[in-house]
């Protein structure tokens, strides 16, 4: 076996025989690190032992009802699509301290209480440190039905032996950046190690039927550390969002082979771990000020769940040579477009005004139905005219100032009705096709942005 040296990009995994300042594949700078690798023998290997399964007809495959394991953590099951699929590999990423290890230990405890065997591989903490964290979360008590095993190990060959010996229903790997394969000479966390370890774990999950949760560190840009191929290998990629200094966390699926990627789970960080937020709309609006300019409520859809959030805007005279535009939780380019529509179609003089938009609660809004709420919040802050407090605002804005229809308006309106809203401004076309009209909330159809602003002003 020959040992050779190769330079690998730590961002995308591109390999080169010599060091390069800029990666030709992902265009990142100073990302090449020298690694050693062993050339495998070119002799043909006996493959009969490796590939025992033969092709079968799709119509002959029978799916069992027990192919998913519910975790009894409703917000997590929602994001996963109903539970953990047997033999699946789930990658969990997020900033340090946001709750990745916490949710992993809570999942382990829940499944252990249901009679499942769980193996928690703690590569960064000793077993006593993991025990202390489990006591804080009131987790880890073995019972007659199942067991939760903890091991501090980073050698993948030994980890594979543990999995084959215990045959657990779930394996937690915390984290992939400290696990190493002894046959590869590069250090743990390198592109070669992360790629190879993830590939071996995935193959082990598919052949044994054991579900594996892999916790991954993130870079300063917020992406999973290691090669991009890591996200392609696994079945599901989950990201924890939110400020780690805030109590609320949002779990979002950016890839899911067994469910929707539009669902989110909302959690609250407490001394006893992550708690589910069953009604996030009520939480996000609990501290909303009354009769204040620049505050508008919109209902955004996250998968099949409508969530009411507060859009806040602040407009002040610029003290510099150019006006600043800042958006937190809302797309900056979309904000620039809406400001341009307000200037051109409504006649607002915003060229010398600093504009700041914030989505309260730390949630990121990508739903185009929030356009009208953002525009009304900016207009309200500029004119110092509060929007009526019990009004929900829905609508997408076109470049000519028209209000375009939105998806599933009735679902959004029903959520607002439960929280006591009395008025709902929505696109005229959506109002026509609504079908069933709600009884406790007044519908205000609008066709243009100017009409919407005039109606809001007239209701003061």
Describe this structure in words.
The chain folds into three domains: 3-38; 66-278, Rossmann fold; 283-458, Ribosomal Protein S5, domain 2 (2-Layer Sandwich). By secondary structure, it is α/β, with parallel strands linked by helices. α8 crosses α9. 27% of the residues lie in helices and 27% in strands. The chain is built from twelve helices and 23 strands. α5 links the parallel β9 (170-174) and β10 (211-216). It starts with a strand and ends with a helix.
Could you tell me the strand content as a percent range?
25-35%
Distance between the termini: 81 Å
Overall tally of structural domains: 3
Rg of Cα set: 26 Å
CATH class of the largest domain: Alpha Beta
Short descriptors:
alpha/beta, Rossmann fold, 3 domains, 4-stranded mixed beta sheet
At a glance:
The protein is of the alpha/beta class and 460 residues long. The chain has helices at 74-80, 100-113, 127-136, 156-166, 191-208, 229-233, 280-284, 332-346, 371-383, 409-418, 428-432, 449-458; strands at 3-9, 15-16, 32-38, 68-69, 84-85, 89-93, 117-122, 147-151, 170-174, 211-216, 236-241, 248-256, 264-270, 273-276, 295-302, 305-317, 325-328, 353-359, 391-393, 396-397, 403-404, 423-427, 442-446.
